[in-house]
Design a protein that fits this description.
Two copies of one chain form a homodimer.
Chain A: E1 13-17, H1 18-32, H2 48-56, E2 61-64, H3 67-79, E3 85-88, H4 94-106, E4 111-116, H5 119-127, E5 131-137, E6 145-146, H6 150-160, E7 164-169, H7 179-199, E8 206-209, H8 215-220, E9 229-231, H9 241-245, E10 255-263, E11 269-272, E12 288-290, E13 296-298, E14 306-310, E15 321-326, H10 329-334, E16 338-343, E17 346-351
């Protein structure tokens, strides 16, 4: 079940198969009709070698959340002498905004922008040489100016001045299991969005919407045709069980966690060494599936243990290795310092360079 | 609300107050009647500067789960020229067991032991120079030999031979909110445990039980009096909301996450930059409390966002900083590469050196 993975790999270990990443990127490009409407979120993959496949597929625009993700992407682009256009889709302030300003100064050939939802921070970001995207609240009140608050939106745009580069509208709260219902809700939001940005006179700027659950709906929305519109899915690059549950088809799971059977208390039970510190557990139970072994049912994990129920077949053997597909891949990748990359039948360990958060004043040394 | 913390600290940032750690260690020592009955779990704190306070309080026996925790503790002890007695409370195998063997060889003056629940691995651990603790299943089938399976228990003890150092019985599944009910259930288990180990002729060896929810009950159990018994709580060193909910009193929250208000979509809402990648979210909602601000109700986090409901008072201000006490501190600490340690009114950044997992063959370079 862990074919081709070396026995001297300690577990739990994050495994990334680059051929599947490449296939997922190609499928994403195909659905978007090319790279122009794509601004994939880098939060999921966090590994420069994975991001390089996005660049190789012709994608130059992307999105991230943390200053570390921004720092790692800019370093990668610099090393490859490539121009990128990075939206840090977060309204960073204070020490975090100062860090982004330092990154912009250190990478003058790159486009680096940040979200804003109030005038003071928009002005500070613009003064620091950053582009500004006006963040608009789709209605779940996670972030952004409410669409109805035209006065605040105008003040932010004015404060950003010529640095104003676009509008950001993240409808990630739409997670209905039925794709048709998701599409309907998303389209209603897009219609409100467009009437707002047109009324504000911002309709000619770039508009960024949509993570994995609704990017297909956004690409199909007639109102975005002919506009500078981009979608920003992240999870599809590695895919996971939760995306499959939402009916997001055509992508393959590219990330697994290699684990070892460390306990067989009884014939119907076994425990793996991949607990909540190796595989996200906030997504509910089961938080993963065992590759090729549907008869093994993952139960609630504790910090370093994942118990399984053996529904059929013989007991598991102590020391046996199994691969697990996470239900939610983004926080799973974030738990790992290193990943075992498999490409062309060979493997190597690389840092998950963009995991975690920078904590100033000095940035964390490279791993 | 974030008094004394420097403005140039980027957020989210893990903050550890060493005076509170010291008070928690002193309280733990007091309840145990001295250091002899303590083998605290290192998984919670993961920071050598915090572990040093355990050593300074005279504790020499401790427990951990991962090879990285073991490596970091042995390095700390070596640097301080102190002898420690470390139980890696996990039945590591294969590459992981080889790593523990290498650690034992590199630190010949230290005691290093591992769990075993089947003969082959017990023999391998003993041959590698490791001590062996027989793992016994308290009945939740997470790990260990079932108490009734005397044959397997005897085989493991025989395979370990002179390396057999003790028995491990982790009743962490007992988490009833009522402390008296927890005590009753724990005592029932201890009685079964003692009759088993006595029947196996292992009653003179060290017996390790109990995390934070039941360590008080274990210390009070009459059957353990006069035995070589130790408890292994971990969470109490830093304390958290979940331990408070279990009625574990007398300890102070020593770990918080410093965060920044990055969004105020409406007057009754605000969003902090401390999402599920900065504060454990597997523990349910709310996953934290805002220090000194009971009128702010944390809602369900997403990866980088923590929305709050403002139940009373004026709206929060953009850029305002708030400290959060995690509901479950162990996985929260594990999310952070560095911590801001506060001691004697001054602060400094240190690595959370024991976070995450080693992935062989070569160990991760030091951070």
């Amino acid at each position: 079940m862990a074919a081709g993975l070396p026995e001297d790999l300690a577990t739990p270990a994050l495994v990334i198969r680059l051929d599947r990443v490449r296939a997922n990127v190609a499928e994403l490009r195909r659905r978007a009709g090319g790279p122009e409407r794509l601004r994939p979120h880098l939060k999921t993959s966090k590994i420069p070698e994975v991001w390089a496949l996005l660049l190789e597929a012709g994608l130059r625009a992307c999105k991230c959340a943390t200053t570390r993700e921004a720092a790692v992407l800019l370093e990668l682009a610099g090393r490859r002498s490539e121009r990128v256009d990075l939206l840090v889709a977060f309204a960073h302030r204070g020490a975090n905004l100062a860090r982004l300003a330092a990154l912009a100064a250190a990478h003058p050939g790159q486009r680096l922008a940040v979200l804003a939802e109030e005038p003071e921070q928009a002005a500070a970001a613009a003064a620091a040489g950053l582009g500004v995207f006006l963040d608009l609240d789709p209605g779940d009140h996670r972030s952004g100016v409410p669409l109805a608050d035209r006065q605040r939106a105008r003040a932010v745009a004015a404060a950003a001045g010529p640095a104003l580069a676009g509008c950001h509208f993240y409808e990630g709260g739409i997670r209905d299991a039925d794709p048709e219902r998701r599409r309907r809700r998303a389209w209603e939001g897009y219609a409100r969005l467009l009437s707002t940005v047109d009324e504000l006179g911002l309709g000619g700027l770039e508009i960024v919407t949509s993570g994995t659950p609704t990017f297909d709906a956004a690409l199909a929305f007639p109102g975005f045709a002919g506009r500078r519109h981009r979608v920003s899915p992240g999870t599809v690059i590695l895919h996971d069980l939760a995306s499959g549950e939402l009916g997001v088809a055509g992508f393959q799971p590219a990330a697994t966690v290699l684990s070892t059977v460390i306990s067989v208390p009884t014939a119907g039970r076994a425990t793996l060494d991949a607990g909540a510190k190796a595989l996200d557990a906030a997504c509910g139970v089961p938080n993963c599936a065992v590759v090729g072994r549907p008869e093994l049912e993952p139960l609630a994990p504790s910090e370093e243990h994942l118990p399984l129920r053996v529904l059929a077949g013989p007991p598991l053997r102590h020391g046996e290795r199994l691969e697990l597909v996470p239900r939610h891949v983004c926080p799973t990748v974030n738990l790992h310092d290193r990943a075992f990359l498999v490409a062309d039948g060979a493997g190597r360990l690389v840092p998950v360079a963009a995991r975690g958060h920078e904590v100033g004043p000095d940035p964390l040394p490279a791993r």
